[in-house]
Specification:
Elements lengths: L1 H11 L38 H5 L3 H8 L10 H9 L3 H7 L3 H4 L5 H4 L4 H5 E2 L2 E4 L11 E2 L6 H8 E7 L5 E11 H6 L11 H4 L13 H7 E8 L2 E8 L14 E8 L7 E5 L1 E5 L5 E6 L7 E6 L12 E8 L16 E9 L9
Parallel strand pairs: 2-3
Antiparallel strand pairs: 1-2, 4-5, 6-7, 7-12, 8-9, 8-13, 10-11, 13-14
The chain binds heme C (5 copies).
The site of one heme C has 26 residues, from helix 5, helix 8 and helix 9.
Length: 355
Amino acid sequence: MRRLLVLLVAACNTPAPAIPSATPPSWHVRPMGGTRAIDPGAPATSELLDANGCAKCHAAIVAEWSTSRHALAWTNGIFQREYAARPQPWCVNCHAPLTTQQANIQGTHAAQGVDCATCHVRAGKLVSASKAATSPHATIVDASFGSPAFCADCHEFTFPVLSERGVAMAMTRHPMQNTVASFTAGPYAHQRDGCMTCHGSRANHAFPGGHDPGMREAALDIAWCRREGTIEVAITNANAGHSVPTGDVHRHMYLRVWKSSAPESMFQAFFGRRFELVADGGKRTIWDSTIAPAATKRFAIAPAELAGDEDEAINLELVYVFVENEFPRQGPRDDAPTVSLARRRMSFAALPACQ
Ligand code: HEC
Ligand code: HEC
Ligand code: HEC
Ligand code: HEC
Ligand code: HEC
């Protein structure tokens, strides 16, 4: 049985995406895919492993980080709800990634999720893209710190082959989260600041994304108009550097168009991903209707399809769902599992003519 498992694992252990340099960058201390925890090394003082310690001198950065999804990566209700259903050690390698966090998973260090040390401490020292003249730290300078390849350590991975205990034995070829690949294939790939063009700056550690109303609303342009006898709805990924939605496999959106008197005749479109099990132990994408960067999805709807009265107002709504099911049983710590991205209401006659 053990031999068989080893063979199976060897067969699907495909090479990890290339890290662009012969010697691995100093932040790169584990294989791709989160198969292991991140080892921060042994710092001279344990202060280097505590975000509260950094606050003495970097108060603004710590304040921004503390409300970010990175800081909440281990404790937030959406994650904890799924983790409770599937408590796999593999998950912990990205949501409380340090070996020093995992040594005491109930402790305050683990509760800091993706914390300062998770990104900045390796071989017991700080790592950063540059070192300031006034810096008191023994900083290892690595120009690729903060590059898309750096983010890929957690934001780009394939489905794992898990042991019965939920330990990742190997990674398959099938993408699970492909935020970095969709960025690299898109129009923003050559931006000097990579992901940081939109997700921060040297001094911004909020890393706003799908949970930030401003980012969510900025991402998409939603237009509706009248073309001959039909309603045309166009949704453009105008401002995200990757597909929308991206990230966790459960994220999805629904576009709905309907008349209040005839909800049973609602038009509905789904934006998300569907998977099927494959023989090598992972899953394979069989459906992906997420919107690629700069792409537009268009829908033509005949008003008659919507039933209702001819001059009745038409409703449009775009709903953004963070979890599998739009109407989940509310857990004790769930933060908004579903939000409305856009709501419009107008009669067919009042819609502008399409250009
Ligand atoms: C005693 C004050 C002090 C403490 C405590 C402190 N730093 Fe710094 N740090 C500085 C100063 C000063 C600089 C240089 C100017 C700047 O970037 O603010 C700096 C720079 C940095 C840099 C940029 C690289 C460099 O060396 O210039 C990083 C990254 C950094 N600190 C991370 C941290 C982290 C993470 C912690 C907590 C584990 C921490 N610092 C704790 C004072 C401190
Ligand atoms: C290789 C790294 C990695 C591993 C392993 C991993 N995740 Fe994640 N997870 C991420 C990243 C990166 C995000 C952020 C993307 C996003 O917000 O959609 C994320 C987001 C999530 C979210 C969405 C949270 C939110 O705030 O909306 C859930 C839920 C989640 N992960 C559950 C899990 C579970 C359960 C496991 C184990 C079965 C797991 N993750 C394993 C990297 C990982
Ligand atoms: C998700 C990874 C990540 C986390 C978590 C993180 N940082 Fe950073 N940090 C970065 C990136 C990326 C940069 C920008 C590097 C660059 O291009 O100079 C940066 C830059 C910095 C700088 C240099 C700012 C400057 O003006 O040059 C400091 C100081 C810093 N971080 C401190 C912290 C502290 C303190 C924490 C914890 C509260 C923290 N970081 C958490 C990724 C991270
Ligand atoms: C050590 C792992 C790790 C690294 C490195 C990392 N992230 Fe994350 N990131 C996560 C996890 C885990 C989450 C999801 C937290 C949650 O909501 O459960 C996340 C969430 C985010 C979000 C918020 C998503 C949302 O839904 O709002 C953004 C944006 C983000 N990361 C950008 C970046 C960028 C840009 C980099 C590189 C500079 C980076 N991350 C590096 C693990 C990481
Ligand atoms: C051109 C701007 C831009 C660039 C470049 C960009 N992003 Fe985003 N990102 C956004 C916007 C806008 C959103 C919010 C859209 C949304 O909710 O999907 C977002 C959302 C996210 C999320 C949350 C998941 C989700 O579906 O909301 C993650 C994680 C993320 N980005 C990571 C990254 C990483 C990693 C990179 C670099 C490889 C990157 N982003 C590059 C604009 C950008």
